[in-house]
Amino acid sequence: MSASPSAGALRQRDALARSQPEAGPWLALLTEVARESGAPQWESAAAGTALRSRQPRPLPLLAGAAVPLDERVVAEWIGRLFALAGNAGPDATSLAEAADRVDARALLAAAIDQDGHRLSTHALALAVDPDVLAAIAQLAAVPLLQACRRRLASAVSADWDDGCCPICGAWPALAESRGLQRERRLRCARCGADWAAVAMRCPYCRNGDHQHLGSLISETQGEGRKVDTCDRCRGYVKSVATLRPWAADEVPLADLATVDLDIAALERDFARPEAPAVALDVRLVDPPDGGTRTGGR
Ligand SMILES: [Zn+2]
Ligand SMILES: [Zn+2]
């Protein structure tokens, strides 16, 4: 297992701290998440994960999976993240106060499923800003999903050609145009997965008609840093030239470092899909030994 944070992530973080000082509190959260991602409790949860044996169609590996996870482990982690987020600004202050009241395991399951309705219900019950809660809950899911990716990456089907992450089902955060061959690889900012993009096809709506695919290329930065767009679904994917693959914990930092590309896309009425690609329906269950109370999600 590689060290967390990775050397590449440390470099990206230092560069971001200089170029986007206002992102400091968010960087502190990402650093805590990277540190937590190597912790043994997530590793054992991933090791005990039962995958659904037969999928009706090719689905991300975690679809329908049962993950053994002690609720005390989740409560401790969510509490720590909420407290840290509480230092991040006025919007997040109420989050620090909500840490004692949250059903941590149910919140984590909702975040893994990217279920906006369940996440809003939690926000309403806790009287916290739904967007802030959703963002923090997504971060909370990262250590478990990274551990699952380390366990499961080798089980991903070689002919996976979907636009969404083959492990956790998230839409790609961005694409790498990698190496001298400019191999196009999609990257997941949650679990860190790395999968091949089908050339000239929108990852969201599978549109392959090149007349309806385009790119936003800046005059100063050229092909090395651009936005690929689809006129059919109005989706976009950021694309960055890389010499080597990003480490898993570099992906969210690369996402943050390219926020100017998001702005350029949004200004032209392109957007990333709001709905997840699949209903993942992961269950968080008591571990067979020493689980506490019952109730999964
Ligand atoms: Zn993923
Ligand atoms: Zn599309």
Provide an overview of this structure.
- With 297 residues, the protein is α/β, with parallel strands linked by helices.
- It has two domains: 37-156 and 279-285, no CATH class; 174-267, no CATH class.
- 40% of the residues lie in helices and 12% in strands.
- It contains ten helices and eight strands.
- The chain has helices spanning 7-19, 24-36, 40-47, 71-86, 90-98, 104-113, 116-126, 130-152, 251-257, 259-267; strands spanning 66-68, 174-178, 183-187, 194-196, 213-217, 225-230, 236-242, 283-285.
- The strands form two sheets. Strands 4-3-2-7-6-5 form a six-stranded mixed beta sheet, covered by helices on one side. The protein has a two-stranded parallel sheet with strand order 1-8.
- Helix 2 runs parallel beside helix 8.
- The radius of gyration is 19 Å and the shape is globular.
- The model is unreliable at 291-297 (pLDDT under 50).
- The protein binds zinc ion (2 copies).
- One zinc ion (ZN) binds at residues 165, 167-168, 170, 188, 190-191, 193.
